[in-house]
Amino acid sequence: MTSSDNMPPAGSHYAGKYPAGRQAFPHRDLLGIGRLERHEILFLLDEAQQWVDLNRSSAKHSDALAGLTVINAFFENSTRTLLSFEIAGKRLGADVVNMHAATSSVKKGETLIDTAITLNAMRADAIVIRHGSSGAVDLIAQAVDCPVLNAGDGSHEHPTQALLDALALRHALRERGEPADDFTGLKVLICGDILHSRVARSNILCLTALGADVRLCAPPALMPDGVEAMGASVFHNFETALDGADVVMMLRLQTERMNGQFIPSPREYHYLFGLTKARLALAASDALIMHPGPMNRGVEIDSEVADLLDRSIITRQVEMGVALRMACLDVLTRKARGIEGWASQ
Amino acid sequence: MKQAAPLTITNAQLVTPNGIEYGAIRLAEGRIAALGAVSAAPGDHAHDARGKLVTPGLIDFGVFAIDKPALHFGGITRAALMPDQSPMLDLPSRVSYIAKSGKPDLWVHPLAAATRGLEGAELAEIGLMREAGARGIATGRRWIADSGIMLRLLRYAAMLDMVVVTHAEDGGLVGDAAATSGEMATRLGLPGAPAEAEALAVARDIALAEMSGARLHIRQVTTRAALDLVRAAKSRGAAVTAGVTPAHFMLSDLETQGFRTFMRLSPPLRSEDDRQAVREGIADGTIDLIASGHDPRGPEDKRLPFADAEPGMAGAETLLASTLSLVRDEVVDHARAIALLTSAPAALLGVEAGVLATGMEADVAIIDPDKPWIVDTDRMAASAGNTPFDGQPMQGRVTALFKGGVQVGD
C-alpha cells in the first residue's frame, strides 16, 4: 500500500505531477478497487485522459506496448468488455490474443491454476481475466508472473468498469463546467440487481472513495446484507431513492446468476424499479443517466430515457472504457518496459 | 496388537473427572489397572511423564477421513467416522468393514448414514448397521429437508437408542452459499446464507427430537441464536447435545478476506459476535464436545475460486492445541478442556474410554500443554494440509500416545 506521505496536494491534476517510481502505483495487478487508495484511483483517471485524446484523434495509435503480448482470457462470455480490452491493447501496439472459455482446456477439465500456469509459460506481459467465480482472478494472479487485470470476477469486482464510469462521469461534469476532480457531495443512485453485481461493488468502493454520496436501490432479495458497511445507503423505494439524485446508474437483472426466483416477474420489476421519464423527474433536473450495459430496455430502463441525448452518458461510458483500459495496461506494464522511475519498483 | 507387559506412567498430572491428580497410572492387559498413588510393579515397563498432563486418548467425534498419521499426531485414539464416504456408509457390510479398518492402534466408530445415499429420502437399514458396529446415525454433510422423514428417523433411532447426529443448516436458505451473509460476503461477492439458517434447522430438529424422545446431537452449533435454542432445550431436559469444531471458536468471517479457500468451511465462518457466543457456549456447558471435523482436501479441491472449492479443514492435528487455547484464555480449565475431547464424545458413542478410571480401555495421551509449535501446511501429517490455521503459532502437543496400553508409533 502506498504511504500518504507522497500524495500530491488535494485537488491537483495528478497526471504528470504525480511522482513516478515505487510510490506512484505500487500494485503489480489490478484486482479490485478495494485495494486502491483514493489518490491511486485519481491517478489512473488522469492517466486515461491522454488516451481519450488519442482515441478522438485520427491516428488512434501508440507504440507504447509494442512487442508486448496481452492475453485476454475470458472464462465467461463477454462482448463489450472483451472488445474494449482488445481495442485498448491494439491501440497501444501490443500483440493481443483472446482466449475464450468455450475453446479452452477448461472445458476439458483443466483446473484454473493449470490454465494460469499455461498462460504464464507463454510469457504474456499482461493477462486480462474474466471469470464467473468471485476470487478467481486473485487465484490466477498468484500463479503468474505478469500483471493481471480483473475484467470481472463473479459478483466480486469489475474495477475497470468502475474506473471508466468515474472517467465518463468526470468528463460529463467537466463539460458542464464543474471541476469534478473528485465527486465530493455528488448524489449517485445505483439501482438494480445489486446482489449479483460486481459493477455495483466496484462502483460503491470507487465512488465513495471519491467522495460521492452513494445510494443503492433494489428489491430486498437483490440487496446484499451488510452493504451499508461499504459506505452506501440502502433504499427499497425507487421514488424515494431518486429524490435529488445527480446521477442515476441502472443495472441489469443478472438472471444468469439467479438460482431460484428473486423477483415475481420482469413486468413487475419494471413497474416498481424501472427508470421511466416520469420517475427521472424526481431526480435533479440535470441528473445524468448511466448503465454499464447491456441494457434490458423496458425492464430496468425505458428507451426514451436511455436515449436522452442531453442526459444519458451510456455511450460515453463505452468510449471511456477503451481509454481507461489503455491507461491500466500502460501503467501496469511500465516496470516491465523499463520506463524510468518505474523499473526500480 | 496386545499389550505385552504392564506399563506404568509415572510423574504425571492425571486429568481425571475429579480434576488433576499427581501420581502414576498403570496400564495392564489393555485396561487401566490403577491410578493415583501407585508405583510400578516388578516387570512393568516404566514411562516418565516428566510432570506433564496425562489424559485419556482423544476421541474425535466426527471425522470425514481415517487419516491415521494426523489423528495420532493429534493424540486421537478413537474417531467417529462420518458416513459421507465413497462408498457411503449406508449398508451394514460397509459399516462392518470400516469398524475394523483402523485397528489395532486406532479404533474407528462408524456413524451410519441416516438415509440411503444420504439423499434424505429413504431411511437406511439403521438397525442392521448398528449390529455391524455403527455407534450412531448421522445425516452427513447435509440437513434432512423433509420434516416428515426426519421425524420418522428420530422415532426409529429412539427405538434403537442410537444418537442422531445432524448437520443443522436449513438447505433452502443455504442453497449454494459459500459464506455467511454480511459485510464480508458482500465485499467479496460471495454467495451468502443468513446465519439464521442454522437456528431454523436447530429449532426444527430439537422440536422433532422432543416429539420422538430421540437423542439428538447437533454436530456443529456456530451461532448465538442456535446456541440459545440448545441452551433452552437443555434447561427443559431435552436429550440434546451440541458440538463444535475449533475453526468456529478461533476464527470469524474476517478470515475469508483474500479468498483463502482453507477458510471455506461448512457451516461457513461466522461473525465475531457468533464466535464469542460459541466461546460462551463452551464455557457454560451448552456445547458438550469439540471435534476436529477432520476433512483433508487436496489441492484439486482447494486450489479453486472460493465458492467452487470444497468446504472442509484438516483439523486433527490442531484439535488439541486449539482446545487448550481455551484454557489459556480462561474459558475452561484443563479438566473441562480434556473432557470436551474425551469423556463427552465417549459418552455419546457409548464406548468404555475417554476417562482415566480403573477398568477403562488403556487409551492414554501424555500432553505438554505449553509446547510451542507453528502450524505449517507443508509439514503436516495429514493427508492434505488444508488447515485454516496455517502459519499460526500453537501451544500444546502430545508427546506420547498409548492405545490399549501399547505406545503408538513405537
Helices and strands in order, then pairings?
The complex is a heterodimer of chains A (345) and B (410).
Chain A lengths: L37 H19 L12 E6 L5 H12 L3 E6 L11 H10 L4 E6 L4 H8 L4 E6 L5 H17 L11 E5 L6 H12 L3 E5 L15 E3 L2 H5 L4 E4 L15 H8 L3 H4 L7 E3 L12 H4 L7 H20 L12
Parallel strand pairs in A: 1-2, 1-3, 3-4, 5-6, 5-8, 6-7, 8-9
Chain B lengths: L6 E10 L2 E10 L2 E6 L8 E4 L4 E4 L1 E6 L4 H6 L2 E6 L10 H8 L7 E7 L12 H6 L4 E3 L8 H14 L3 E3 L4 H4 L4 E2 L2 H6 L3 E2 L2 H17 L3 E3 L5 H12 L4 E5 L2 H4 L21 H12 L5 E2 L8 H4 L16 H10 L5 H8 L1 H7 L14 E11 L18 E11 L2 E2 L3
Parallel strand pairs in B: 1-4, 1-5, 6-7, 7-8, 8-9, 9-10, 10-13, 11-12, 13-14, 14-15
Antiparallel strand pairs in B: 1-2, 2-3, 5-16, 16-17, 17-18
How would you explain this protein's 3D organization?
The complex is a heterodimer of chains A (345) and B (410). Chain A is 34% helix and 13% strand. Chain A has 345 residues and is α/β, with parallel strands linked by helices. Chain A has 2 domains: 12-158 and 319-336, Aspartate/ornithine carbamoyltransferase (Rossmann fold); 159-314, Rossmann fold (3-Layer(aba) Sandwich), CATH 3.40.50. In chain A, helix 4 (136-143) links the parallel strand 3 (126-131) and strand 4 (148-153). Chain B has one domain (57-353, 372-391): TIM Barrel (Alpha-Beta Barrel). Chain B has helices spanning 68-73, 92-99, 126-131, 147-160, 171-174, 183-188, 196-212, 224-235, 247-250, 272-283, 299-302, 319-328, 334-341, 343-349, and strands spanning 7-16, 19-28, 31-36, 45-48, 53-56, 58-63, 76-81, 107-113, 136-138, 164-166, 179-180, 192-193, 216-218, 240-244, 289-290, 364-374, 393-403, 406-407. In chain B, the strands form 3 sheets. In chain B, strands 1, 2, 3, 4, 5, 16, 17 and 18 form an 8-stranded mixed β-sheet that branches. Chain B has an 8-stranded parallel β-sheet with strand order 6-7-8-9-10-13-14-15, with helices on both faces. In chain B, strands 11-12 form a two-stranded parallel sheet. Chain A binds chain B through residues 34, 111-113, 131, 133-136, 138-139, 153-157, 198, 201, 224-227, 229-230, 259-260, and chain B through 175-176, 181-192, 194, 258-259, 299-300, 303-308.
